[in-house]
Fold this protein.
Amino acid sequence: MSRIRWSICTTGWCGMGEPVVIPILPIAPVRPDPLPLCASTELAEKGNAFVFDVLHFREPARAFVLRFDGRVVAYLNRCLHVPTEMDWQYGEFLDSGKEFIMCSIHGAVYEPLTGRCAGGPCGRGTLTVIEAFEREGQVYWYPSQDMTPAFA
Ligand code: FES
């Protein structure tokens, strides 16, 4: 990206100004360091989630990470139907068939790998995704501008 800026002669010696191209370099966003959540072994396939506290737009909230089809996925624990926590018991988010994340309040179901609403009163929305990954036996999440750790 660049912007063309014209120099202005103020002395009369230079005639018309030459165009001067001033490059505007994109500023790479500074990505925060990933934060550790739990050991990989704590997340059983389609088992209970690891629940953690965050600040979502500076408001205290809960989030969770679980393992589904071998992947770790993390979301804000907030239903799209009514902004409330969804777990049946603490850390228990999946339906009885272990196919969907199911809200315990009115039964909205979400696709575990994407967070997309798959049925019920959640409409066409998607759960708020939190970027999570695992490396060398440890699960991590990336804070963002909107989602920060509750305890820094
Ligand atoms: S609050 Fe989740 S389905 Fe109604």
About this structure: The pocket of FE2/S2 (inorganic) cluster is lined by residues 79, 81-82, 84, 86, 103, 105-108, 120-121 (CB under 6 Å). The chain has a mean pLDDT of 90. The first strand starts at residue 2 and ends at 6. DSSP finds no helices and 13 strands in the chain.
